[in-house]
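User: Hi! I'm working on a homework problem where we have to compare a predicted structure to a textbook description. Could you give me the structure for the chain below?
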Amino acid sequence: MADSTPYPSGAIRVAVIGGGISGLAAAYFIRRSLSRVELRVLEASDRLGGPLHTLRSGELVLEQGADSFLIKTPYALDLCRELGLADRLVPTGEKFRRALVVRGGKLLPVPDGFVLMKPQNLPAIMSSPVLSLAGKLRLLAEPLMRSRRGLDDPAYDESVASFATRRLGREAFERLVEPLVAGIYVADARKLSLAATFPEFIEAERTHGSLWRSCRAARLPGKRKGRDANAPTAAPTSAARYGQFVTLEGGLRVLVDALAAALPAGAARLGTPVRRLERRAAGRWTITPAGGEPPEHFDGVVVAASTGCAASLIRPWDAELASRLEQIQYASSAVVTLVYRRDQIAHPLDGFGAVVPAVEQRPIVAASFLHVKLPTHVPKGLAVIRVFSGGVLHPETVDRDDQQLIATAKQQLAELVGASGDPRETHVARWRNSMPQYEVGHVQLASEIERRVAAHDGLQLAGNGYHGVGIPHCIHTARAAAQRLVNQLKASRRL
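Assistant: Happy to help. Predicted structure tokens:
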């Protein structure tokens, strides 16, 4: 093989396996960095974007997967600005910027200032009916709890359930922490890695010995960066966090379309699953599609699919790397979207949505009130509620047929928010093996994977399986993978 000679086009050839947000972003960053590159984005399904999937129904903008992204982590925001989408960014609704939680079949507000695991507003917690008196007293005793041995070890990790229970008490964990975390990761908190998902809480205990003291220190004069240290500071509220989410006018599909439009014509190939990825001499690669198309040769490859898919492609030539990738498990979920007239709902729906603790023993994980969270997506007079089910604790739910999922969603909404009559529209989406589960030890596992990948010139991995599941984190891993690949290509003097 004449692997040391340029391809006939004279351009560097790069393939991206996977056309979700990570793959599209990686392809975009590679093209922006290389003046002469021939790109292929190989997507197994019949559309780009993965779980970023927007439906239009008249004036309705209905997200079937993620509906917004966080701007505190700036990577998605920066990409939108680069793509010329800044003027299409839309904030979340200004009213009812809070979450509700189910207790005894009723929707109660999450105590103001309670953000995941930090109790920042004592009066709000003490007056909240979410916790019993015993639960509140145990939470108040958090500063008296001893820290665990080994906390000063930089590699320290424990499960979210372990941390929350020992710091805040079992009731606070079951009634607040577990459902809020499940709403993000559809995970089993008893296995979920604290270091991989919420490392700031480890640092808070390591530095201050207590979550309460950490919150207090953050509000003291002289402890705040980037602002007047002598300015008065109010107790943080949960509303501030929910105000950090934005979406795009027309839905998140706009971001997918903008990335696709930024690629060369014909670069994206739909319905093209990859059967084989082979290493060649001089750091080059051969990709064989599953549909009988001839193999293609490339200078570099970014695998932006699930870690399980990456493992199946890598196993023939690096079984150890494949084994590590397979250790990252995935969960599936189902989303049922129901469109009601607003007068069909008795509840005021005075929050962005509701989370359901596992101890409530209901067949759903959460419900999102889209018309409250993103009022620009829904005409007045309508209520759009998205009901989430499945996850690690109820994997069988996803295999139920559409009518069963819709019936369950309608029943739960009738009980929880007083929904009556039939909805005007219903839509069902299933996201199979789409949410990676960062189990205890994930940070070290991801580092081991990166060390193994670095031994293969011209290969990079990207996606939500490594350093964060949100849209900004996916874009960040894509940018980092693209930059590493470009650096490798430059170092090998193939540019």
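For your comparison, note the following. The chain has three domains: 12-50+252-328+439-491, 68-96+329-436, 116-145+157-234. The first strand starts at residue 12 and ends at 17. Good luck with the assignment!
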